[in-house]
Amino acid sequence: MAFRCPICGAETAWAGNPTRPFCSEACQMRDLGNWLTERYSIPVSAPDAAPASDNADAS
Ligand SMILES: [Zn+2]
What we know:
Elements: E1 2-4, E2 11-13, H1 25-41
Antiparallel strand pairs: 1-2
The structure holds zinc ion.
């Protein structure tokens, strides 16, 4: 059974592959890096963050 490495697209044997679903340890680390980068670069946008501007008319 063979599969394509999701990182580099190289066709790789599944059986006996310690780094599956990647073709190599390098791609495994690269995927981990991508994952961490994505996790920490998610833009934190809060569309509902409009603080109590309706209650500011108590004169
Ligand atoms: Zn690869």
